[in-house]
Amino acid sequence: MNTDMNTSFLEQALAVLREYIDRQHNGVVSRAARALGFKDPSLLNQWLAGTRVPSLSTLGPVLDQLGVSLHTPTSGLDDFAMIPKVEAKAGAGSSLLTSDRVEGLYAFRKQFLARIGINAEHAVMLDVMGTSMEPLIRDGDTILVDQCSNEARDNQIFLLGLDGEVMVKWLHKIPGGWCIHSQNPDVRDVNVVGADLESFRIFGRVRWFGRVL
Known about the structure:
- The protein has 5 helices and 9 strands, in the order ααααββαβββββββ.
- The protein is α+β, with helices and mostly antiparallel strands.
């Protein structure tokens, strides 16, 4: 098994654990260890400190409790980068569900990500809820968001926020602001100008989407 691949895979798995400890247990490792059923709470500290390397057989059940799918790496997996998919839903309409809980890690070829200019460490995946971007992006599709592309640009699709809602939409430049445009012709445009710009945020550019047929 490739050593570099193992290191990369382990780092990403431990990053999921650290995020869980910070979010659910205010950074208290011993409390998280008890919640995860560690017989020896110091073992989790050793994993995180790098003084002890977990095996897949011990790490797998822990990640399963967090809802993270763990697939045993193969010798060819070093050609792939693992991108987290979060529980949040991007509204393609008025629907919205926000959660940063990681549902799983999904493999993308590093060559593909490099070709389209995506840094896997700053990318995230999430599902779309709603029909305003149909027929291009449909309800239930999964999108890949490049969080490095967090500046509004004309005629591109972004994961964006406005007045507390998170949505996936086209952006078009207009005088003094931006037009939030839906692919679905039955959904009206929303112009963001003036005071509305204060609650307008760009979380990243949508670079890929997929669906189950």
